[in-house]
Known about the structure:
By secondary structure, this protein is an alpha/beta fold. 47% of the residues lie in helices and 20% in strands. It has helices spanning 21-30, 32-35, 44-54, 64-77, 94-110, 118-125, 148-158; strands at residues 4-6, 11-16, 39-43, 59-61, 83-87, 113-115, 135-138, 140-142.
Amino acid sequence: MSKTKINRVKRIAFVVHPDKKTELIEWSYFNKSLLQQHEIIATGDAAKVLEGTLNKAITTYLTGPYEGYQELCTLINEGGVDAVVLFWSNDETPLQRNGIRGIIHAALEADIIIANNKTTADFIITSPLMNNKKHAVENLLEINDNDDNNNELKKNNAA
């Protein structure tokens, strides 16, 4: 069985529909201290929003399905992303939907974390696994830390 290596400092990519900018501002401000611990990657205006909200440098890609989404897919395929967070809308154009599908497909192929909405992003960003040292994922989690959260996870997974 293959293992997916996940680093302590996650490389989190954000793709955000223009109608979801306010939601991104509120969410990223609320999770600022958690997000600042990780490398943030974003397309277009989302990068500007995150840079302003988090007060840190953001790796920025072009916006949209023509170049930005394709660049992000390439980065995912090359192992340069640990998690993808999508703040998207049903109002996406067919071209945008195809771009989003491409990102989701690349993330699935790379076996990385995908959050398709704010609720899932909340669960992911607040998970005790987000700040573990490097670990491998294989059916059950193999965690190399000895802190209480990890011991609790080991107990739960063993049950």
